[in-house]
Design a protein that fits this description.
By secondary structure, the chain is mainly alpha-helical. The chain has 12 helices and 6 strands. The radius of gyration is 23 Å and the shape is globular. One of its GO terms (cellular component) is cytosol.
């Protein structure tokens, strides 16, 4: 099938369809808009202002520099999101005998309700780390508790992660400003307001697991539990989970001076690498899955780890962070760091912590 020479042989998808980067999949898709035929002097439309044009075999190819910005940003982001790391720690990776004599592998505990609520908080922290949302810049906000301060979208650019983009669109499209605590409740479906039921994120665990399957970390299997057939997600790339477990254990049992490690690794391309690890450990603790990472430690070291995570959660659930190591080393927007502290502050009030 041939296309008009005046049509765009490469363009950005309109309107953020799904949030994924489409620079490769749409490279040969003909333009569906009524572009100017022939010479293409006006065929660029708005694209002439934003794109770079080059001649390939007599045709015209437009490359949007914003695509390059997305690619460059993706290179600086870690492979897994905070939500995926917490979910990965929650997955059982050892054979466990059941009443029916079966073995359950690659599943989340049926009785753990805390992880669902915690994952919604992790979504907000991940958006803050990616500089998409921040606290509303209002001098009077300090009169209110961290969890009661309003948040807003400061960068509408999609991330390519489905759950993050879905949440970003909801926050951006809402006329009413809401606080960190309110958003976590709404995303979790914990509201009596029938007008806001639509804010609930559905099937977050399963969607995160499928995302890890797409990234090659997990695989999907069907297993029979008593009278039910359920999809489980055993670990395929064990090195990824081992790295997450090792990072968590190193943070909690390191014998560094002070209660927390240094928060900025300036030689690393990963933004806020150590702060991300601190938040991941605290989220895993609130979600009741941290014990899966500490099961390889002896009893004494586990006690040290639990004492350390209590200190971390206390230090980073208020802003400015009270840790001496953090005062002069966190490079970033205070309004975004406030969201991190606010989410951790919400975690401190969960039943799993109390």
């Amino acid at each position: 099938m041939s296309t008009n020479n005046g049509g765009l042989s490469r363009r950005r998808g309109a309107g953020g369809g799904g949030g994924e980067d489409s620079t490769h999949t749409n490279s040969s898709r003909p333009s569906s808009t009524g572009g100017a035929p022939g010479g293409g002097g006006g065929g660029g439309g708005g694209g002439g202002n934003h794109g770079h044009r080059s001649s390939v075999d007599g045709g015209k190819v437009f490359a949007d520099p914003r695509d390059l910005q997305i690619e460059n940003e993706n290179k600086t982001q870690p492979r897994l999101t905070l939500m995926e790391e917490v979910l990965l720690l929650g997955l059982k990776d050892k054979q466990i005998a059941t009443m029916a004599g079966e073995a359950r592998l690659g599943y989340l505990s049926f009785w753990n309700d805390n992880i669902s609520y915690t994952l919604r908080g992790c979504i907000l922290m991940e958006l803050a780390f990616r500089k998409r949302i921040a606290m509303v810049k209002d001098p009077n906000r300090r009169k209110y508790a961290l969890a009661d301060r309003y948040i807003e979208v400061v960068n509408e650019k999609l991330t390519g992660e489905v759950l993050l983009d879905e949440t970003l669109k909801m926050i951006n499209s809402t006329q009413e400003r809401m606080s960190v605590g309110q958003w976590i409740d709404l995303l979790s479906g914990e509201t009596w307001n029938v007008m806001k039921v639509g804010f609930q994120l559905k099937q977050v665990r399963e969607r995160l697991a499928k995302g890890l399957v797409d990234k090659g970390v997990l695989r999907t299997e069907k297993r029979n539990f008593l009278i039910f057939d359920m999809a489980t997600h055993p670990v395929t790339d064990s090195a990824v989970k081992e790295e997450v477990v090792k990072r968590a254990c190193t943070t909690l049992i390191s014998r560094s001076n002070g209660s927390t490690p240094s928060l900025t690794d300036r030689e690393s391309p990963m933004v806020f690498q150590q702060l991300r690890t601190v938040t991941m450990v605290c989220a895993a603790y609130a979600a009741n899955v941290l014990e899966n990472a500490l099961m390889y430690l002896n009893h004494e070291m586990r006690e040290v780890a639990y004492t350390k995570v209590d200190e971390l959660l206390s230090d980073y659930s208020q802003y400015p962070f009270v840790s001496p190591a953090s005062k002069n080393e966190v490079a970033g927007n205070d309004l975004q760091m406030e969201i991190i502290a606010a989410v951790l502050n919400v975690f401190t009030k969960m039943d799993s912590i109390l």
